[in-house]
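Support reply, case 0932

Customer input (verbatim):
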Amino acid sequence: MKLNIGVPNSMHVAAMTQPWEHALTGDDIGRALKVADDLGFNKCMLGEHFIIPQEHIALSGDHYVHGTVALAFLAGRTSKMRVSSSVSILPLQSPIVQAKAWSTLDWLSGGRATALFGVGWLKEEFDMLGVDFHNRGRMADEYVAAIIELWTSDTPTFEGEFVSFKNVGFAPKPVQQPRLPIWFGGDAEPVLKRVAKFGDGWSPFRTPPEKFPACLDLIRAQRPMTVARSTCSSRWKC
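Our regenerated output:
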């Protein structure tokens, strides 16, 4: 069994974090993760939101670090542990910007990055960032395809509804080959199909354990080649 660790004081969600975390500084967090790295934890994980409406703060909090920025800091304080989002909201940023952030993180960390993407749930956050909430699933599928193209092609070319590029260069590429791992978080059937089409792993959130076998069967049924590489994780272990 491989154990993961949630990054303390990276978010203030009442149901998931403890008040003592709030006093930790960045240096405190870095030292704590260094201890976890020395103890052999598999990877550290943190969530991300960019802006929270006032009416959601009581439950969701308004303290969230920027995911790839924070993971880059933690990669510099550790040497073996993988660094992973949990989750990055895929439709909220340009896939070109996200591809650059993740490939930079993987390059600087020596190939320790894992992207865990989700489609998001907070409509008001999408509205404030000018992103169509109702198109987020289609955008996520197209964005991840564009990101993979940028990571893996020497001459990246992509023509889509939401993003297009050609005659471009993109470097640094990820250290991990053919690309850094992509996981998807969530419980809905479209998430499972996204795992089958693009992913290396699935991170359920509210799916009860007794339903895991059926969900994995659905993933495997989409495409034979996903059987060997699709894995399942609880929130803190894989």
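We compared this against your earlier run and they match. Two observations from our side: The chain has eight helices and nine strands. The radius of gyration is 17 Å. Please reopen the case if you see a mismatch on your end.
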